[in-house]
Structures are given as C-alpha cells and as structure tokens.
Amino acid sequence: MTGPKLLSRRKADRIDELAQGGTSLAKDALRRMASNPVAILGACIIAAFVLLAIFAPLLAPKDPFIPYPELQAQLTPTNIPGPMPGFLLGSDQNGYDFFSRLLAGARQTLIVGVGATIIGVTIGMIIGGLAGAFGGWVDTVLMRFTDILLSIPSLLLAISIAALFASGNQWTVIIAVAMVCVPVFARLLRGSMIAQRSSDHVLAATALGVRRRTIVFRHMLPNSVGPVIVQATLTLATAIIDAAALSFLGLGDTDWRRAEWGLMLGNSQDLLSVKPELAFYPAIAIIIVALGFTLLGESMREALDPKNRR
Amino acid sequence: MALLDVRDLSVVFTRKRARPFTAVDNVSFSVEPGQTVGLVGESGSGKSVTSLAIMGLLPKRGAEITGSVSFSDTDLLTLSEKQLRDRRGRDLGMVFQDPLSSLNPVIPIGLQITEVLERHRGMSRKQARVEAVELLGRVGLPDPGRRVSEYPHQLSGGMRQRALIAIALACRPKLLIADEPTTALDVTIQAQILALLSELVSETGTALIMITHDLGVVAGLCDEVNVMYGGRIVERAERHALFATARHPYTHGLLASIPRLDAARGDKLIPIKGSVADNIAWEEGCAFAPRCPNATDRCRNEPPELVPDGAGMLRCHNPVAVAVPEGAR
C-alpha cells in the first residue's frame, strides 16, 4: 500500500489521526480533497451557487416576477433596454428585471437538478441494491429493465417521458431527468455490490454466521456507495444541463414567467440579434454550475480511489 | 467421539462447456475435541476448498459436494443455509489468510466483534462492547479500549490478524479453522500469531484445523498432519513421525525443499520438480507420478489406495524407505 518513500508522510498522517482520535475513510477522503485546488475551485463554485439559490429572494434587487412599467415603456420589437439605474442588466423581453430573474433562476435550477438527482439516485439504488443483494432472477429481471432504459439515448428518453407526463410544471422535468439517470445508478451499485459479495470480508462475515440482512446493510452497502456518491455529484451537472435542454425545447414548465435558465435560454432564441445577453448570461450560468459539479465530482472520485491512498 | 468427522468428502466444480474439476476427492479425516490437525499441501491441493466445504461456504451453484461432514453428530452438509448461519461463528470459527481484506474497511473492528456477540450470545450492545475490549486484550492488542473503535486500516498487519482471531474466538467455537493465517505476515509476527493461536486453543479447548503450506507451522502446532496432493490425502501421520520418517515422496520433497540454516554454504535448495499442472488424473494412476523421483510404470497406471502404514496412513506404491532404528530389530 505504501512505499518506503511515503513512510514519513504516512507517519505524520497517523499522528494527525491520533490527535483527532480516530478517522474514517470519509474523513480521509475529505482531507485529500482539501489539499486539491481543483476540488476547492469546484466546491467554491457550488457553494456560491447554492448560497445564491437559497438567498435569491433577499439578494435580488427587484421582484423577478412582476413587470416594471419603466422597462416596458422602452420595449419595442427591435429594442430591449440594457443596463440602467436600478436595473443592473436591464430588461428582458417582457419588461422584467433580467438580473433578478437570473438570480431566481439559480434557485429553480438547483431545485430541478438536486430533485432529479435525488429521485434518480434513490430509485437507482433500490433497483441496483436489490439486484446486487439477491442476484439470480431478481438481478436478471431488474438489469434487463435497466438495459432497456439505457438503450434509449438519454435525451430522447427524457423527452419521451416529459411528453408522456406533460403536466406542464417543474415536476415533469424533474421526473424525466431522474428517470434518465436511474439505470446509471442501478448498474453502478449492482456492480460494486456484486464485487463486494465475493470479497474476503463478506466471506469472513458469512463465516461468522452474520445475518444476511446485516451483511447487506453493514458489510456490502457501505462499501459500495462510494462510486454512487461520485456519480451523483457528476450527475448533478448533467441533470442541470438536461433540465435546461428540456426547458429549452419547451417540454418543461409551460409557465413562461417562471425563471429557469434553460427556459430563459429557449425564450431568447428569437432575440439574439436584439439583445444577445438574454441568451448569453443563462448559458454562462449553466456552464459554470455544471463545471463546478464536474470538478467536484472528479476530484471526489480521485480522493476516494484506493489507488491514491497514502 | 470425534468432534468433526469428515467422511469421503468430494467437491466437484462443474462448469459450463468444460470438464468438471475435482478439487477435493474422497477426503476423510477426523478431529477430536481440543486436537490440532494440519492440512498441508501446495497451492491447488484442495486444502482451502476442504475447509470452505466444511463451513458450507462454497457457492451452491457450480460446486457438487458429496460425502458427509459430521460435527457433534450433525451432518453439516444436510443443514439449510439458515441452520448453518446459526452454527457458523458460534460452533465453527474461521480465520482467513489476508487480515486486511478479511476485515470490513468501513466499520470499526469493535463493531465487527460485537455484531458476532450480539448475534450468537444475545448480548446487549453495551455488554458486547465490554466483552469486545476484553477479547482484544486477550489476543494481545495493546490499549484495547482505544483500538476497539479504530478502523482496520489503522492497525498493523499483526494487530489485524489478532483482531480477526479475537472475532473468530468471540463465541468460543468448538472448532476453529485457520486457513493459512500467517501467510500474509512477517516472520517474526508469524511466530507470535502461532503462539497466540496455540495458547488460546489450549486455553479454551477449541479444536483447530490448521491449513498451511508451511511445514514449519505444522512442526510447531499440529498433533496430526494430513498431507494433501491433487485433492486427495496422500499421507497422514502424527507430527513427530512425519518429520522423522516421512514416507510419501511428496512429503519427503516438501521437507527437503525447506531451507536449512545448518546447510553448507553453496548448497542449493532442492525443489520438487514440475508443478501441480503436470498432474495426471487420479483415476489413471498416482497424480504425483509425473513429478515423483520414485515413479514406476505401476504408479502411472494403477492409482494407489490410502492404506494404514505404521501409525499413519499412506497412499503410495513406492514409499521412501524408512531407516529402521537399530533397537527395533
């Protein structure tokens, strides 16, 4: 596990551990991430995004959901007002404060991204966990089901599901995006559960007469969730992009007043010649947030990789 | 009355589109309460599969197990998985080869002891924790009160194996199977672990099956030794008899291949020629014949039977001659 070169470093770590009174794999991984600049950058982007999303109503200089007469007065088919006193980024095509709507969009995007990922992870883990714990025909049936889901291109699947539900609120998008990531999590958890099932320590626990339930929940599951957590972080990025894509295509929220970056992007496509910023800012916001989750996820994968353990 | 009586145990691995492979072939031996029995052989001789079959840990599919394994008058092979789970850990314990991979990395070692105590001895979590600290102390872990809440990666190799022994002996099983418990450890630690095992085993009256390829381990620990080759027992002897008068050419080869401190400088080690892969099937003749210095045509064509030989058992047509001691004439 460790070369002689690394011994002194390892000893230093040991002393750290002793000082803290014990450590765990999670703490270990956190410590490695804290010394990785990429992880810190990712974490900062995510932290900023989450704070903006939570405090959007307090931070927004204007109410994002009502039109302002002074903006509407200047609206013409060929002119959308730019920055002016009180309105940092000017107006959008409907006379709303564009900057406040961008902030409100952060919250909406977070809700959709996190909601879709949580639902996807939960369903995926139930399917993968059952398949990995039981094996046999349970495994075969569940895995063929996920194979079917996986065989359909993800965006096409999301569009089909969104069209099927078409309830015209944000839940359509959340469910559609969640269903797309279900098979990924199911396969991931099943794979690592199966690897765990044939591992020495599970065999040792079986040799001690430990109950099946305990083996699954205490010995197999906790050792299998690492890759799932990493994938969930990475999925947050794709979920946000997928959700934006669905909104862009008009399959999400039908309420055009709701501020959502994908929707804002979609609604501004006719106005690129009039005010390109209307498309530019939401697009940049989506890219930065997706980048943040990707950086965080990748560095988490690195930190949890046993090959990188000292 | 033997504690464990293995009769004609065979394990055949059946694979799709491949010839069935007989890993264990009509193995019979017994273990008395408190006795230490060695199973010795090279990799692939079937010793680990024998132990997994006794514990009922072989996969249900793909492994055909025949014969009987009576443990305190119950045939373990006829028990359901549920009944087996009740016995494993309580009546039968097992210590594995690699102490790091045999411990769950994400939970403290204390919890891995208490879960067994709670399961088999019906202790409350609190009682079990007190007992766990005591057990860790008994296997010689320094500062057990703190170690109990540490994770496997925080312990050294020797300490991990001590912890595993503590877990296996937590419920004072009647039989402990140790599958190469010292292979992954330093030589100095090996001696400590072996001393600990034999001490605990005699203290608690636990019978021990010691699986090893290391005759040094056998010399220090076992009352009786079964030498396995190609899935069959080829020689059985009391420990001293084995080292003094090994009869089977294979046992002889194993003994000759041990490096000796008193050998002259420049003396080469004497390996056993060839590898297990050279084996012929036992049905055709003696599986060891292709590697055996004493092999004759009879060895290649007529499988030898396991027959009584002196105080032990031997499966060989042309055993190594015993120098009969002068006084015995």
> Biggest sheet of chain A, open or closed, and with what strands and sense?
none
Topology order of chain B in helix (H) and strand (E) letters: EEEHEEHEHHHHEHEHEEHHHEE
Specify the structural class of chain B.
alpha/beta
Kindly provide the radius of gyration of chain B, computed on alpha-carbon positions and rounded to a whole number of angstroms: 21 Å
Span between N and C termini of chain A? 7 Å
Radius of gyration of chain A: 24 Å
Largest sheet of chain B: 8 strands, mixed
Helix content of chain A: over 70%
Looking across the biggest beta sheet of chain B, what order are the strands in?
A: 6-7-8-3-9-10-12-11
Helix share bin of chain B: 25-40%
Per DSSP E runs of 2 or more residues, the count of β-strands of chain A stands at 0
Shape by Cα distribution of chain A: elongated
Terminus-to-terminus distance of chain B: 36 Å
Total helices of chain A: the number is 12
Account of the 3D structure:
- The complex is a heterodimer of chains A (310) and B (329).
- With 310 residues, chain A is an all-alpha fold.
- Chain A has helices at residues 7-20, 25-34, 37-59, 69-72, 98-134, 136-151, 154-165, 170-197, 200-207, 212-248, 261-267, 277-304.
- In chain A, helix 6 crosses helix 8 (170-197).
- Residues 1-9 and 14-23 of chain A have low confidence and may be disordered.
- Chain B has 329 residues and is an alpha/beta fold.
- Chain B is 31% helix and 22% strand.
- In chain B, a hairpin with a 2-residue loop joins strand 9 (224-229) and strand 10 (232-238).
- The chains are: A mainly alpha (310), B alpha/beta (329).
- The interface between A and B is medium-sized, with 24 and 35 residues.
